[in-house]
Each structure stands twice: as C-alpha cells, then as structure tokens.
Amino acid sequence: MKYNNLVVNLLGALSENGRIQKLSGVINAFETIMSSHRGEVPCTVTTAKQLDAATLKELQAALQLFLNKKEKLILETKVDPTIIGGMLVNIGDKFVDMSMSTKIRTYTNLIKQAV
C-alpha cells in the first residue's frame, strides 16, 4: 500500500517531536478547515424535547436565512430537558440562548437584587 508523502511526513514529524498523541487534534482541525472550505456551517440546536419533522424543517429554513447562498447548513439537534423550554443555538461562531432556564435564572436574580 502506498501512502501520501505529506501524510508520512506529518506522522514522522509528530512522532519525532513526541506529539503523536496530538494526532486526533490535528485531524479535527483539518476536518474543520475542509468543512469551512466547502462552505459548510455547523449548527447545533438544543431543545428540551425532540423536535417533530415539521418543526425541524421550519427551523432549518429559518437558520438557512442567516447564511450566504453558497453556505450549507449542517444541523445537529440535541435534547436537554434541563433547559425547560426554548432552545440554545450554536451556529458558526455565534451562540444564542433562548432557553426558559436562563430566563428564569435571570428574572430570579433580578427579583433577589430588588429585594
């Protein structure tokens, strides 16, 4: 089997410098760079309950509006009941917290400060 010289040299350099354990980080960074090069924008949406197909489709369409026409949304959904309701959205390098748990915590702190 023939291996690409760049890969062989990279593995050799990592090994010689005692950094072979960093290989997974290098691979992850490369995957991120290539994903960006392809115009893919990662997006993670966390909700308290699983979204049904219609809501997911509507959400995907709304999120796509925030992207350029050449960018492609790569949507991942997660479920976390501790957020109570609403959603957390990570899209590209932006984060939006629209969760009920954060709103409750914010209003609770405001009431405590007022008393």
From TrEMBL:
Keyword flag Membrane: yes
Highest taxon of source: Eukaryota
Example GO molecular function: proton-transporting ATP synthase activity, rotational mechanism
Subcellular location, record wording: Membrane
InterPro entries attached to this UniProt entry: ATP_synth_OSCP/delta_N_sf (IPR026015), ATPase_OSCP/d_CS (IPR020781), ATPase_OSCP/dsu (IPR000711)
Main location: membrane
GO cellular component, one term: membrane
UniProt KW keywords: ATP synthesis, Hydrogen ion transport, Ion transport, Membrane, Transport
Quaternary state and interactors: Component of the ATP synthase complex composed at least of ATP5F1A/subunit alpha, ATP5F1B/subunit beta, ATP5MC1/subunit c (homooctomer), MT-ATP6/subunit a, MT-ATP8/subunit 8, ATP5ME/subunit e, ATP5MF/subunit f, ATP5MG/subunit g, ATP5MK/subunit k, ATP5MJ/subunit j, ATP5F1C/subunit gamma, ATP5F1D/subunit delta, ATP5F1E/subunit epsilon, ATP5PF/subunit F6, ATP5PB/subunit b, ATP5PD/subunit d, ATP5PO/subunit OSCP.
NCBIfam families named among the record's database cross-references: ATP_synt_delta
Family: Belongs to the ATPase delta chain family.
Protein name, per record: ATP synthase peripheral stalk subunit OSCP, mitochondrial
Organism of origin: Octopus bimaculoides
Source species taxonomy: Eukaryota, Metazoa, Spiralia, Lophotrochozoa, Mollusca
